[in-house]
Automatic annotation (TrEMBL):
Active site (catalytic residues): 49 (proton acceptor), 204 (proton donor)
The keyword Hydrolase is annotated on this UniProt entry: yes
Pfam families in UniProt: Glyco_hydro_43
Organism encoding this protein: Sinomicrobium pectinilyticum
Chain coiled-coil ranges: none
Family: Belongs to the glycosyl hydrolase 43 family.
Lineage, opening ranks: Bacteria, Pseudomonadati, Bacteroidota, Flavobacteriia, Flavobacteriales
Name of the protein described by the UniProt record: Glycoside hydrolase
Entry annotated with the keyword Hydrolase: yes
Chain positions of site Important for catalytic activity, responsible for pKa modulation of the active site Glu and correct orientation of both the proton donor and substrate: 158
Molecular function via GO: hydrolase activity, hydrolyzing O-glycosyl compounds
UniProt record, GO biological process: xylan catabolic process
Sorted UniProt keywords: Carbohydrate metabolism, Glycosidase, Hydrolase, Polysaccharide degradation, Xylan degradation
């Protein structure tokens, strides 16, 4: 019996985000986490939900950045980037991701274009992970050109960026259809055709990570969103669907994951609407839970702290 109890307590403890508390940021509503491991720190980039409780849609004008060396204590930095830093954009600081290349930090963001109807992807650059960031191009990197067979006006959103072991960079993004293309070494130009990845019930929010020889493409599945994932031996596929990684995150229709390995542990970072009274789909909060792999590389379903 003692043995059984110790197993029970082990699972109880490891299934909760024991060291810290969820949500990890409570003084502001934060959404669409994208974490970057750099040197001995994690930089957590988020959107900022500013909708008051009578406004039933996203009100997002800026992105935020927090850093931590232990995944528990988060330091907020000066607001590093706003929609208005992109002269060609008019609204919607939606999902984003930052990556480092050759000492520069590139931040791929979703916004609404001021003149081309629909969503667009821009890229900002900085010498520091905490900014200040500046629009790298003075125009969008990806606009809604309505030339893809699957095109809808809001499919050019939720960029995720990945640099493969051979140095080739890739940009994945999409809503309803998942797209990818190569990026030139300068990280600010697309290189070659746009491909579509066929994934069951793909909604949005692709995230690419690699562990050992496996590539993982996780994404928001159905709506309200669960997070599902596929695995491949190559960044360009073929991708094999593996199932649900995370269930619907409480009262938030969206979920939006980021997956990192930091100081020997794996983390699943997402958002829910769990701040009491006003939290919900348009007032979301970033949470962190542990992620575990099975032998063979598949991922165990995440146990959210709120479960
Ligand atoms: O935060 C606005 C949008 O909601 C994001 O772009 C999606 O991924 C979803 O989280």
């Amino acid at each position: 019996y003692r043995h059984r109890w110790s197993i029970f307590f082990f699972y109880l403890l490891t299934s909760l985000y024991v060291q810290g508390q969820n949500p990890v940021i409570t003084h502001k509503y934060t959404a669409d986490p994208a974490a970057l491991v750099h040197n001995d720190s994690v930089y957590l980039y988020t959107g900022h939900d500013e909708a008051d409780k009578d406004f039933h849609f996203y009100d997002m004008k800026e992105w935020l950045v927090f850093s931590s060396s232990d995944m528990v204590n988060w330091k907020e930095h000066k607001v590093p980037l706003k929609v208005k830093d992109f002269s060609w954009a008019k609204a919607d600081a939606w999902a984003s991701q930052v990556i480092e290349r050759n000492g520069k930090f590139y931040w791929y963001v979703t916004v609404t274009h001021a003149t081309v109807p629909g969503k667009a992807i821009g890229v900002a650059v900085s010498d520091s992970p905490t900014g200040p960031f500046k629009d790298a191009l003075g125009k969008a990197l990806v606009t809604n050109d309505m030339t893809k067979a699957t095109d809808i006006s809001w499919d050019d959103l939720d960029p995720t960026v990945f640099i493969d072991d051979d140095g080739q960079a890739y940009l994945y993004w999409g809503n309803t259809a998942c797209y990818y293309t190569r990026l030139k070494e300068n990280m600010t130009e697309l290189d070659g055709p746009v491909h579509t990845v066929d994934l069951p019930n793909f909604t949005e929010a692709p995230w690419i990570h690699k562990r050992g020889d496996w590539y993982y493409l996780s994404y928001a599945y159905e709506f309200p969103e669960k997070i599902a994932y596929a695995m491949s031996r190559s960044i360009t596929g073929p991708w094999e669907y593996k199932g649900i990684l995370n269930e619907v995150a409480g009262n938030s229709n969206t979920n939006h994951q980021s997956i990192i390995h930091f100081k020997g542990k794996d983390y699943f970072i997402y958002h829910n609407g769990s701040i009491p009274t006003d939290g919900g789909s348009f007032r979301r909060s970033v949470c962190i839970d542990y992620l575990y792999y099975n032998e063979g590389g598949t991922m165990k379903r995440v146990i959210m702290t709120s479960e």
